[in-house]
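so my prof wants the structure for this chain in the tokens format not the other one, which i didnt know existed until like an hour ago. anyway here's the sequence
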Amino acid sequence: MATTEVYTMPRVGKELMTLGFSFQGLRSIPEEVFQKQGVEALWLGGNNLQDLPEKLSTLQQLMYLDLASNDFCECPDVVYAFQNLIGLYLTGNQLRCLSSKVGNLHKLQSLWLDNNDFAAFPHELCDGGLRELEHLRLNKNRITQIPLTISNLPALKILELNNNQIGEVPSSVCELTNLQALSLKFNNIQHLPRNLGCLKELKSLEVSNNRLEEIPLSACNLKQLCALHLSSNKLSILPTQLATQLEELESITLENNPLIQPPYGICLQGVAAIRSYEAESNIGGNVLEPRQKVVVLGKTCAGKTSLVKTILLDRSFLADVVEGRTHCIEVGEWSPGNGVRFEIYDFGGHPVYNITSHFFLSPHSLNIVVVNLKTYTSEDYDETVGKWLHTLQARVPGAVVCVVGTHTDQCSQQEIETKVADISRQIANGSELNLELIISQLSSLEDAIHSYGKLPLSHRLYGVSLQSLQQRHDQLKDLRDKQLKMESGVHLVSSAETMQGISQLKAHLVQLVDNRQWFPGLHRRLPPSWVEMEREILQQRKPFKYMITFEECLEIGKTCNLREEDVPLVISYLHQQGTVLYFHDNPQLRSYIFPDPVLIIDIFKDIFHHEPTKMLSHSIPAMRATFTRVRFQKMQKNFLNEGLVPQELLEVLLRNRFKNASDMQIIITLMQKLGLYYEVQSKVDGLVREKAVYRLPLYLKSERPDVSKVWPDSTPKEAEQITVGLEMHKFCPAGIFERLCAKIQPHPQYDISTRLARRRLRLHLGRKCTPTINEAVSRRFHQHHSCRKSGVFKADIGVERHHFCPARIEKYSPRVARCYL
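here's what i got, hopefully its the right format
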């Protein structure tokens, strides 16, 4: 059944008579089409058409023709008969070439040929017949070259060639003097034309995800440019005063580049920060401040602390297996004498610390994965090495990693060689499998995009918007190109008296960070005023001083000769570098800066512990002085089993940290921002809620509580259940379910119950009907190991269809939605 409508075409500005048959599974054109007179727009997208009949040429008034997402292997000849055609849309077919007759469409202004099978740019477009063409799209094909004759499209305003295999942009592109938008993302381009500045009308330039090593100086002449996208290239230096000279520039993206000038962290803040940096640089020049962050990861008792202490103290140090265990994170500074300061973060290996440690992973850090060669076996690879590599790839894609084997003094030479060979082999196999998985998912997404609108209801991507599919496709391509930078081999050391391999490792670390491509932040140069403000903020690091106000930062900025509007840029830059914590997007936290992340770590130590019974004991004087034994035992039970913490208990745990209650409340808000807890909304298990009660999902017991009263086994007739599946291949990120609970639970107008059965987490959301529904939270994380071994971890989220879901579900199937990670 056709839909006949009259509406305004946005590009034309006039009313058109349209006939629509989109997404109706058509294999032939309905007779109704030929009976209509005066049709100016015909929508036939999302069908199964393979050809068009010649009698369709009777529609001589046709101006817009949509044939997207069909099964055309070539453009039907009848299309070339529409002399008044302005817009032709052939996205998502199987076209490999065009007929020279395309030049007969002299009035054509918009031509979309995305997602076809062109191995070469259709040269027929450049034969001189399409003098009015303004918008040309050839995204997602296999094009390797742009023809020199592209200058024969003089009216072109928008040119899109994303997701191809283009290696070079000819200078003739810069002869398109009317061009306003040029998009060349996801190609293999190494250089842009030197005459790029000739595109005087250009407003948007997108060249992300290429291999650019420099931007031509002529780019500073693009005076109309508003948006410049350069992410994921190999840029180390931007043209001097680029942002200042481009006065109309409003948006710039530079993520994932080894930038030195301006420093990477400044570039991440956008146009305003870069302009401020350029202005300050003009006043006082730049100052080199070399500082490198090193993150040490590994399983419990891998020898991390012994290794770190041996490096810092320059003598043998063997940590006690029990008392010497790293509690959460320890931070130390090492200065090898070459002018570089190394900040070494020793991460506790116990699983309880995994929920907090990922907050301190950052791009451009040097990451050391430590493995105990004495106890290592091939079967333990996933736990001792693989898990940490997966964590780094998930949190900081493209990070630099080296593997260090410890306890070599307790191993024979043959044992060392065998185990090192096994680790190297499994690292290579894991990288290969990970890449194959990404490529497989890319292929699935490309098929879904190509068949969009014709996917069966049973397809796992049915109902996902085309925009989401394309966005995920681009993310996976980016991930494919940002594999971990693995140091070859395993570095062998011993922290025992011989200190075997320690001096060689230290020398190697100094040499490694000198790689400007891998560690651009080490060679950063900052304006003196920025350096001075950083130093002043570091001076604020004092015991019990967890935060400073934004107003205090403004005063510091004045003493450093910074403009008031530049102070937030410097603070955001320091946050990007990991020097401070600053959450400008949170209304309750944006007025505070946390100058010393290590102090925040110390607070975590008082709450998250691998032996919670030692942390929570009635033998502690403050506990005895505050709570009766009966009340304490009830709180202890609720804490250890249900993760419940009354505020008065939290105050005792943190009694030595804060001088006033307001500071504690700010830190509690920070913990909520990080997804470490949520506030319980009602009385729980007999606890009288005199003050707030918080739940730390990390301490939830393994057994599942009875949730049948709030979550029936069968879906009520008046409701419909939606299932969202989260499929994680081999690796389940640490703390994902704890943070999921903390992020979803606080919505007070909804009642949520979660339960994690074998390989499956289910969340049921509905209107509040009982005060205990928020407490129906459980987890069974002992199942994770078996799930990892089977290769897939699944989580299903059930939601009543007619209610709001706090978890962001865009537009999925009425019954099933899946998100594959």
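also thought this was worth mentioning. DSSP finds 21 helices and 30 strands in the chain.
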